[in-house]
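User: I'm new to structure prediction. If I give you an amino acid sequence, what do you actually give back? Let's try with this one:
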Amino acid sequence: MEFRGRIAKLLHQFVLAMKRPALVIRASPDHASVSFYPKEDPVEGIDERIAKIEIAKELLIQAVATMDDLRKTAESNKREVRATLAQLQEVGGKREAAKSELMQVRRLASADIEVFRKVAGIPSPAQIRRERLLGFVLGVLASIAATAIWWLASRYFPTLGS
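Assistant: Good question. You get back a string of structure tokens that encode the predicted 3D arrangement of the chain. For your 162 residues, that looks like this:
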């Protein structure tokens, strides 16, 4: 299986760096040795390399599978977002239709109320205000007239005033 792209190149470089040990410490009863980036033992190094390559291969396969799963999840999320946006647009359209329908119902209801008031003889709020104002003004005028009559009567008939 061959991989292409930046991630594959980075993983390849990582595997190459991991093939070779950076520090090797060896101890024997006679002496101890430390070596940085030592030359590898050809027989032992090949087996270790094969084992590391197998591990790297398994990790790469897992990484590719994980990337595929992530891609599928992202595509699924995109589909869900598109569906949700479509539902929002649909609900927005229904909302506008419901709003206009509500306004029509309110207009019809107010028209029905006016017709019922006329048929039943119930005065409108404007008529009620007008009647109350007229009653108040007529009451004040009647009070002034009664006071004038009383004043005139007490003036011409002094016995009424006492």
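You can read the tokens as a compact description of the fold. Here is one thing that stands out. The chain has a mean pLDDT of 82.
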